[in-house]
Amino acid sequence: MNAPAIQTTRMNFSFRGLPVLQDVNLSVSHGEFIGIFGPNGGGKTTLLKLIMGFLTPDNGTIRVFNNSPEKVRTRIGYVPQIHRTEADFPITVAELIAMGLSRRPFFGRFNKSDWQECDIWMERLGLIAHKNKSYCELSGGLAQRALLARALISDPDLIILDEPTAHIDAASMKIFFQTIEALKGHKTILLVTHDLKTVFHRTSRLICVQNKISTFQPNEICDHFNLGLFHPPLPNQPLHFASQQ
Ligand SMILES: Nc1ncnc2c1ncn2[C@@H]1O[C@H](COP(=O)(O)OP(=O)(O)OP(=O)(O)O)[C@@H](O)[C@H]1O
Ligand SMILES: [Mg+2]
Q: Is residue 84 one of the residues assigned to a domain?
């Protein structure tokens, strides 16, 4: 039988002695679409960085595609949580997207077909008119689309999206979910969001990260969560969001 796409066992992680994640036992199957939510500082981004091998657990284990996370990084597409600064970063939109290909094994120089692939992704995500603009000139929503194209261009098996829909408008949101829905079932997807209402019904399950993790089925998600009132699973909780589907 296939090993899970992601498996953590009794994983603990702390920053300078302060516990951030405790006793995380998580098993994610291939093709699952998992929504991740929880309060600011709850440890969501930290969990993603552990899964990508940018951080290592204090103790416990973590396996991704039955390997050490850092060994399979080329199979992961990542949209980081945006912290935009005023700093000018001299790179065009096309160049930023092409960077996604540099994660391939045996990467050499970009060739003609690489640039054609970039064009395909820019067409798909409505970025082609911005192809030669500086990435830093893009609005927040267009920048998020460019980061999504960079994450997906290498056809990764695991897609990790850290608040990719924060501050984007309805048009960008539509393009974003059309793109992700097309990958559902084929790829393993982890999506961090504070916008549960938009996301919960698209997922196979949801995980609340608040130092520890709790798992929910989509129909267990209730209005409390969007208000920031996080709590452990409660049986027979009224299902306000679920009734809106
Ligand atoms: N590089 C770091 N050094 C020290 N502490 C850190 C570092 N990165 C994160 N932390 C701390 O770890 C905790 C979890 O942070 P993390 O970024 O994982 O939270 P989050 O759930 O992603 O929050 P948000 O919703 O604000 O993105 C916080 O208390 C944060 O201050
Ligand atoms: Mg975060």
A: yes
